[in-house]
Amino acid sequence: xxxxxxxxxxxxxxxxxxxxxxxxxxxxxxxxxxxxxxxxxxxxxxxxxxxxxxxxxxxxxxxxxxxxxxxxxxxxxxxxxxxxxxxxxxxxxxxxxxxxxxxxxxxxxxxxxxxxxxxxxxxxxxxxxxxxxxxxxx
Length: 138
Hints:
The protein has 138 residues and is an all-alpha fold. The protein has helices at residues 2-29, 33-44, 50-65, 69-81, 89-101, 105-118, 120-123, 128-136.
């Protein structure tokens, strides 16, 4: 009896996951930036598979070009570490900068540390404290 219940539950959840994934793909194909980000995240979970990482990159890139900061940050990380793409620090910096300007806190922290070491006068613009204060002045 327990085996039957486990099998039924497994089949039910597998079917629900497959339907959810298909809906996510459909929404991503229709240009929903959040769905594109979520789809990329699902592909990225299979990090040992080069093809999956390339798909993750593709969907992060589509969403990032439309200004979605979480995708911009993930894209920057992929370029920084060479995950699924050729390592490119200049492109990583570009995407960290874009995500930072959109208010992504981790990207701001990275850019703050980067400029603190190289150009302290520019680091202030990326300071998490400055970003929070700037948001309150709007």
